[in-house]
Design brief:
381 residues, Carbamate kinase, 15 helices, 13 strands, 40% helix, binds glutamic acid
Length: 381
């Protein structure tokens, strides 16, 4: 893939989500947050904002890392509640450090802490968007992290790569730039293989790419390369390129955004999914799974049909109507997600049956469709 193509894409970019991993912000010698690294990155971001007129949203990790150091605890063996306590302490240090570094350059920051639950609710998702827009209009740079102290498994993003990918849609960004403690995606793990080669451009996140990513790791943060690939996928289907570059190498941000150089560039899908469909397919966490027969899968994929009860073979999970579910083919793979019109126990009664039997089986009928086409998104890649 040519450098011109990258530069062409960069031309149109106005708003960038920059994700800075814990591994980048960590001093690496157990001394916790590296304020020097943070200062350097803030300097680079301010330069770029000034001369390319980019607007930047930061997704910054490092709360647990900074907090555990401040509390003299070893990060590796902490229980979840202790990690949450570390995050509460470390987040103060993190945001204060960003605030001071940006203030020194005449820039104000605003902190937004999110749980996945916040953006699973459509109204709160839209509220977060409005806040973000107001911050931009006021010239304030949003600094985002997961609200680790409040988040438990069910409402967690899991890692900040996932959070950053979702923020690209909340913030209406044009690029997701992930600063990592490695230079990008390699064809094998560079920590284990000295002849590993950097993959410069990825136009299709296929099984080979996922396999390669599954093997590499990052030590300080939660997300290894695998979570970065999932993040890239989430952003790319929304038409947003993702770029993984080194956050450790000096001037890597400028080299990337000014010259198009460095790292691994994931080219976006040309056909972008609409915002609401992106929210359904790539932001909501599915609460259950529906196993479909081949006929129903074909009708959904090839003919753009809604999902009817007749094609459902098996219902998995407990969910209410209005929640998101995964649609699984007979090969066991997810190919779509959608907002379901019936509760799981209702689907148990009507699965495999024709829509004109719903009323007799349930005693009422809310909808013919189990998932209406407008609420259904193909996710298979
Ligand atoms: N939110 C976590 C923190 O600030 C980091 C999650 C991650 O490393 O991806 O410590």
């Amino acid at each position: 893939m040519s450098m011109e193509k990258r530069l062409g894409i960069l031309e149109g970019i106005k708003r960038v989500v920059i994700k800075i991993g814990s591994g980048v912000l960590s001093s690496g010698d157990g001394r916790g947050l590296s304020v020097e690294t943070l200062e350097r990155l803030v300097g680079d971001i301010c330069h770029l904002e000034a001369d390319r007129r980019f607007q930047v949203v930061l997704v910054a990790s490092g709360a647990v890392m900074a907090g555990s150091r401040m509390l003299s605890l070893k990060q590796e063996h902490l229980s979840i509640p202790i990690k949450q306590a570390c995050a509460a302490v470390g987040q103060v240090k993190l945001i204060n450090s960003f605030d001071a570094a940006f203030a020194g350059r005449g820039k104000k920051v605003g902190q937004i802490l999110l749980t996945h639950d916040d953006i699973s609710n459509r109204r709160r998702y839209l509220n977060a968007r409005n806040t973000m827009t107001s911050l931009f209009n006021l010239g304030v740079l949003p600094v985002i992290n997961e609200n680790d102290s409040a988040a438990v498994h069910e409402i967690k993003f899991g890692d900040n790569d996932t959070l950053a990918a979702m923020v690209t849609s909340i913030a209406d960004a044009d690029l997701l730039l992930i600063l990592s403690d490695v230079d990008g995606l390699f064809d094998s793990d560079p920590n284990k293989n000295s002849s590993a080669k950097l993959i410069e451009d990825v136009s299709d996140i296929d099984d080979d790419i996922k396999l390669i990513a599954g093997e590499s790791s990052s030590t300080t943060g939660v997300g290894g390369m695998k979570s970065k690939i999932i993040a890239a996928q989430t952003a790319c289907v929304y038409g947003i390129p993702t770029w993984i570059i080194s956050g450790k190498a000096k001037d890597s941000i400028a080299r990337a955004l000014r010259e198009g150089k460095g790292g691994t560039f994931f080219h976006p899908r040309e056909k972008k999914v609409a915002r609401r469909k992106h929210w359904i397919g790539h932001i909501l966490k599915p609460s259950g799974r529906l196993l479909l027969d081949d006929g129903a899968k074909k009708a959904v994929i090839d003919s753009g049909k809604s999902l009817l009860p007749s094609g459902i073979k098996h219902v998995d999970g407990r969910f209410e109507s209005g929640e998101s579910v995964s649609l699984i083919g007979e090969d066991g793979k997810e190919f779509a997600r959608g907002l379901v019109n019936y509760h799981a126990f209702e689907l148990e009664k009507i699965k495999g049956k024709r829509s004109d039997k719903i009323e007799a089986l349930l005693g009422y009928k809310s909808y013919d469709e189990v998932i209406h086409r407008d609420d259904l998104v193909l996710t298979g890649f």
